[in-house]
Amino acid sequence: MTKTALALAAALALTGMSQTALASANCTEHPKSEWLSEDAMKAKVGEMGYKIKVFKVSGDCYEIYGWTKDGRKAEIYFDTKTGDVVKSNID
């Protein structure tokens, strides 16, 4: 393969990977009055064994960036009402 073909193949692979990595979770929409409070959700996440680096609201989800109890990087989306995991990416 030529350098140009290799560069093109690498660019296409990265584009596909970034679209997958950036795809957000499909959380159920709940009225804000039914959401777990952020403090309650952070406590629940801690009880699940995750260490939180970043906690945020992402659309209709709570989202964390942090680590699992065994030290692996984690990006987890949670239902705002139940606190259930909707989507997780663990490295």
UniProtKB/TrEMBL annotation:
Domain PepSY: 8-88
Top-level taxon: Bacteria
Protein's organism: Terrihabitans soli
Protein name, UniProt field: PepSY domain-containing protein
Keyword annotations of the record: Signal
Organism taxonomic ancestry: Bacteria, Pseudomonadati, Pseudomonadota, Alphaproteobacteria, Hyphomicrobiales
Signal peptide stretch: 1-23
